[in-house]
């Protein structure tokens, strides 16, 4: 914890502390005048009202048992589920998703995701990139990009919040890394009981905000820190901590008791228990995500259960799929009913697909050659299926869609032009967010 104390002495350059505050304005938060002007410009930009909820399914969900049922395949491939008709004529999905089927006009099912690295991590679903051959500092997560480009909507609410818990397989609990954008743009992660620390206990706002106490230690601290970008990150953390502690907005957003019982029941509750080395089955996180977005968070990342089903694929599917169906459909309907779905994008996917052939343990193994995704909201054109796989679900037979194409599309829906925007890495080299040589926003979704 950083303790900040001070007194009334003048500064070494003969400026009074009152003058320092007047000149520095938001110095405590690390905001320079250009940053302030940039934030003001973003606040006038209609795109700055947009946001995204990223739902990661750790382990790799079985594409051929979700959105791409293969009735004509041999029994060792076909599996135990049958397709059901959705609200969109000609579009069928697995019988385990009846609620999503009734909302299919608001959804896009992608059956031909390619480009998976084959590794068990959330990184590619958060950045669009592999972990290999990263630029200095590493690729930033989409939420970190939104934090950098638009900044927070409200000083009391972080721009980026991660709800995924720490997992035994650490890469599955990744909420997103800021990469070369620096720690100032890392996700805020209120894990479990930590939410209780978001409110003041026995400390008045006046005492907490005492600028005279703050500035003495702030002056000393600046002299002790080098110029490697850490100061900016610490400044941002200070600003965020003061904003959070002096406002109830974030704590209120995480307090589901403020929601009507009928709404909580609609989302469901799930299970606050890690599934082996994977995530929890907490359906309440989906409601928290909506409340956080509504409170002003730009990006919320969360994970659900564990989908690495090398054995008992269909038993596990009958447990997890109906829960996912309930929570995601409640989220989509809730966003739509509140008039938010046009601005808020939702993506649901995992790191790769599963083998077409069912193994002797009744499971499916790793299959990076093709996987699936589901998108909603964001002002995109929904009510469709994009891509096809061959009869066995082995590989795309029509319209392969790369991870980076999905990210280019999401950035576009969030008001970011991936053809124009560059952000500097740790060596000061400007970087495009997407490979400019091969990946563009998907025309099927965005005109």
TrEMBL record:
| Taxonomy, superkingdom | Bacteria
Which InterPro entries has this protein been placed in? Alkaline_phosphatase_core_sf, DUF1501
Q: What is this protein called?
A: DUF1501 domain-containing protein
Q: What is the lineage of its organism?
A: Bacteria, Pseudomonadati, Planctomycetota, Planctomycetia, Planctomycetales
């Amino acid at each position: 914890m950083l303790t900040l104390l001070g007194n009334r002495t003048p500064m070494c350059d003969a400026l009074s502390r009152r003058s320092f505050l007047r000149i520095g304005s938001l110095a405590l938060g690390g905001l320079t005048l250009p940053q302030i002007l940039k934030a003001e410009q973003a606040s006038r930009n209609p795109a700055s009202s947009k946001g995204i909820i990223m739902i990661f399914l750790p382990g790799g969900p079985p594409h051929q048992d979700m959105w791409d049922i293969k009735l004509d395949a041999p029994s060792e491939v076909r599996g135990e589920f049958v397709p059901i008709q959705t609200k969109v004529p000609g579009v069928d999905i697995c019988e385990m998703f009846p609620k999503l089927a009734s909302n299919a006009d608001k959804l896009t099912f992608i059956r031909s995701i390619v480009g998976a690295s084959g590794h068990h991590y959330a990184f590619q679903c958060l950045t669009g990139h592999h972990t290999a051959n990263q630029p200095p500092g590493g690729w930033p997560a989409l939420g970190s990009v939104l934090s950098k480009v638009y900044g927070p909507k409200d000083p009391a609410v972080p721009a980026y919040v991660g709800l995924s818990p720490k997992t035994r397989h650490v890469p599955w609990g990744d909420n997103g890394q800021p990469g070369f954008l620096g720690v100032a743009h890392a996700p805020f992660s209120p894990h479990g009981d930590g939410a209780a620390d978001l409110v003041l206990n026995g400390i008045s706002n006046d005492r907490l905000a005492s600028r005279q106490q703050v500035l003495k230690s702030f002056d000393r601290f600046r002299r002790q820190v080098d110029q490697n970008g850490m100061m900016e990150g610490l400044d941002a953390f200070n600003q965020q901590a003061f904003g959070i502690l002096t406002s109830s907005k974030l704590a209120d957003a995480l307090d589901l008791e403020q929601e009507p019982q009928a709404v909580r029941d609609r989302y469901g509750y799930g299970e606050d228990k890690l599934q082996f080395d994977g995530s929890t089955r907490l359906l309440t996180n989906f409601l928290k995500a909506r409340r956080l977005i509504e409170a002003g968070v730009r990006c919320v990342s969360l994970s659900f259960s564990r989908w690495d089903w090398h054995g008992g694929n269909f038993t596990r599917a009958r447990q997890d799929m109906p829960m996912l169906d309930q929570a995601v459909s409640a989220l989509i309907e809730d966003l739509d009913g509140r008039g938010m779905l046009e601005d808020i994008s939702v993506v649901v996917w995992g790191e790769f697909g599963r083998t077409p052939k069912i193994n002797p343990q009744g499971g499916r193994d790793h299959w990076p050659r093709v996987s699936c995704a589901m998108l909603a909201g964001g002002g995109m054109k929904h009510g469709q299926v994009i891509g096809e796989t061959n009869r066995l679900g082995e590989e795309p037979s029509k319209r392969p869609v790369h991870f980076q194409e999905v990210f280019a599309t999401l950035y576009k829906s969030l008001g970011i032009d991936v053809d124009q925007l560059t952000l500097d890495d740790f060596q000061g080299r400007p970087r495009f967010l997407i490979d400019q040589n091969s990946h563009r926003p998907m025309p099927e979704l965005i005109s």
